[in-house]
Amino acid sequence: MLDPSTLLSFTLVVLALFVIPGPAVLMILARASSGGRRIGVLTGLGVACGDLVHAMLATFGLSAVLMASATAFATVKYAGVAYLVYLGVKALLEKSSDLQLPQARKLGGWAAFRQGMLTEVLNPKTALFFLAFLPQFVSAQHANATLQLAQLGLIFAVLSALYSSAVALAASALGKWLGRNRAVGRWQNKVVGAIYLGLGAKLAFQQR
Question: How many Cα atoms sit within 13 Å of 173 on the Cβ side?
C-alpha cells in the first residue's frame, strides 16, 4: 500500500500537471463548446480511460522489469528521471504561443468518448510519460511494487476523470476566461518544465 506522504505528493504533482491547460483540456473544452457539457464529459472520460490503459500497460511492463532484477528496475527509474529532466528542459526552452481552442465538429456521445480514448491511447508520448513518471513514486521500503504501480495508475486515471468532467461542466466559463487570457499559453511550458525538473531533483535529493 502507498504511504500517506507518497500519496499526497503524487496527488499534488498530478493535479499541478492537470491545472495547466494542455492539448487534452483544450480538446475537452472544444467538444463541450460545440456539443454541450455531456459531450465534453464523455470526451474527458475517454481521455481518462486512455490514461488508465497507459497506466496498466506501464504497470505490467515495469513489473516484468522488477521481477527480472531490482537493479534493472533502478536503471529504468533513473532513465525515467533523465527523461523527465529532458522534458523539463525542453519545455523551459520551447517558445510558447497564445492558447487557441481547436475547431471541433459535432459528435455523438459514443463517438466523443471513443475519440478521446483513442487520441490518448495512440499518443506515444503519453506511454513514455507513464513509464518515466510512475516509478518515481514507488517505494523500495514497501512490499509489492506491482500493487503500488497499479494503485498509482488507478489514482491518476480517477483524478483525470474527475478533472476532465469538471473542465467540461465549467466549459463555458473556462472557455471565456481562456479567451480573455490567451497569454496563459506563454507560461504553461515554464510551469510544466519546472514540475518535471522538480521531480528529477526530488529523486536525486532522496538518493543523497
Answer: 4
